[in-house]
């Protein structure tokens, strides 16, 4: 239990609890951010002296004043429910009297095959290879950037995604066209790793404190990132020199820039390549359950959004102009 009024211990305790329950790093960052915003909104009062009424006021403010999306408001609610239940041990009983942000109905931005080719052709080096994984394997950008060498199986032509969205593992394929480029990338990682080890580094961050169970594993090539960062860093806890994976913002800048150069007028993001992967598989006649597994969706209804592509041109209706 956090002592009432001791705000300095609140965020560290929240981080520690999130890590103990094996939440992802991104979830940890977002939850801590929402806790901080809630405390500031509430006049820097400690959450133990606040309750459901203040939480409702904060969530309503997000919808009416900040005009956040429904998913953003839901994330903030989840963060505060976690805070009170798991950190403060004071579960909130009712959080109902809030103004809900509107949930817009959006169709995914999907590129044509020609547009996808033009976008990828405008990219070079590592960003091009990562873009090929987004479009060719249906990976999310965070999944591609955090891919480890051991999870690429060249013999079976498949990639194992570890701890994807919802902390789920899944397998997807590697496109034949990128096999050799991926082999070359792994060879570059092997040479870079050998240099790092020779200079006293070469260790890598491990999931769920696995480095304590198997300390030598942090030096194994299999645990290294397929797309390592250009620079090393010093771990704050152990003082080891490590190398992180390429940051997702590299791709989040590279893909839209490539789309502009390719003169694609749609709003193209990294996720547009994943959307296009699913859409083009369905267009090619693949079963929706197969696409669901490759994407890692828990519910097939999530994958159903891509079936709009089967209705060519306005739900398959032929325009009267074409009959003139």
Q: How are the SSEs ordered, and which strands pair?
A:
Blueprint: H1 10-20, H2 25-41, H3 52-64, H4 70-87, H5 113-121, H6 125-137, H7 141-145, E1 152-153, E2 158-161, E3 170-173, H8 179-198, H9 210-213, E4 228-234, E5 241-245, H10 248-261, H11 270-283, H12 288-295, H13 300-303, H14 312-315
Antiparallel strand pairs: 1-2, 2-3, 4-5
Helix pairs in contact: 1-2, 2-4, 3-4, 5-10, 6-11
Keywords for this structure?
5 strands, disordered N terminus, two-stranded antiparallel ribbon, 7% strand, 48% helix, globular, single chain, 324 residues, three-stranded antiparallel sheet, 14 helices, mainly alpha
Structure description:
The protein has 324 residues and is mainly α. 48% of the residues lie in helices and 7% in strands. Strands 1-2-3 form a three-stranded antiparallel sheet. It is globular, with a radius of gyration of 23 Å. The chain starts with 9 loop residues before the first helix and ends in a 9-residue tail after the last helix. The N terminus is likely disordered.
Summarize the structure.
The protein is mainly alpha-helical.
Structural class: mainly alpha
What can be said about the biggest beta sheet?
Answer: 3 strands, antiparallel
Task: Report the portion of residues in β strands.
Answer: 5-15%
State the share of residues found in helices, binned by percent.
40-55%
| Radius of gyration, in angstroms, nearest whole number | 23 Å
The general outline is: globular
- Average pLDDT rating: 87
| Count of DSSP H/I helices | 14
Secondary structure: number of strands: 5
Note the gap between the termini. Answer: 75 Å
């Amino acid at each position: 239990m956090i002592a009432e009024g001791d705000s300095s211990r609140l965020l560290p305790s929240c981080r520690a609890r999130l890590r103990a329950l094996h939440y992802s790093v991104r979830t940890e960052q977002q939850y801590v951010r929402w806790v901080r915003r809630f405390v500031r909104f509430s006049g820097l009062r400690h959450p133990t002296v606040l309750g459901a009424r203040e939480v409702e006021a904060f969530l309503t403010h997000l919808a009416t004043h900040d005009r956040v999306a429904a998913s953003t408001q839901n994330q903030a609610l989840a963060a505060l429910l976690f805070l009170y239940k798991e950190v403060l041990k004071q579960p909130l009983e009712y959080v109902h009297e809030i103004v809900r942000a509107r949930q817009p109905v959006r169709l995914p931005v999907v590129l044509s095959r020609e547009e996808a080719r033009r976008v990828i052709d405008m990219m070079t080096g590592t960003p091009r290879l990562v873009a090929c994984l987004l479009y060719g394997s249906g990976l999310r950008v965070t999944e591609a950037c955090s891919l480890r060498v051991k999870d690429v199986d060249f013999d079976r032509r498949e990639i194992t995604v570890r701890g994807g969205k919802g902390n789920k593992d899944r397998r997807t394929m590697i496109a034949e066209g990128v096999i050799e480029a991926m082999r070359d990338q792994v060879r570059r990682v092997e040479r870079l790793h050998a240099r790092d080890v020779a200079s006293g580094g070469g260790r890598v961050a491990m999931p769920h404190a696995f480095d304590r169970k198997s300390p030598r594993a942090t030096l194994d090539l299999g645990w290294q990132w397929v797309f390592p960062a250009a620079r090393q860093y010093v771990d704050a806890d152990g003082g080891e020199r490590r190398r992180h994976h390429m940051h997702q913002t590299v791709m989040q800048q590279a893909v839209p820039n490539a789309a502009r150069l390719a003169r694609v007028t749609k709003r193209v993001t990294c996720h547009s390549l994943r959307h296009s992967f699913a859409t083009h598989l369905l267009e090619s006649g693949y079963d929706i359950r197969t696409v669901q597994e490759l994407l890692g969706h828990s519910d097939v209804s999530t994958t159903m959004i891509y079936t709009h592509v089967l209705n060519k041109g306005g739900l398959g209706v032929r325009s009267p102009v074409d009959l003139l």
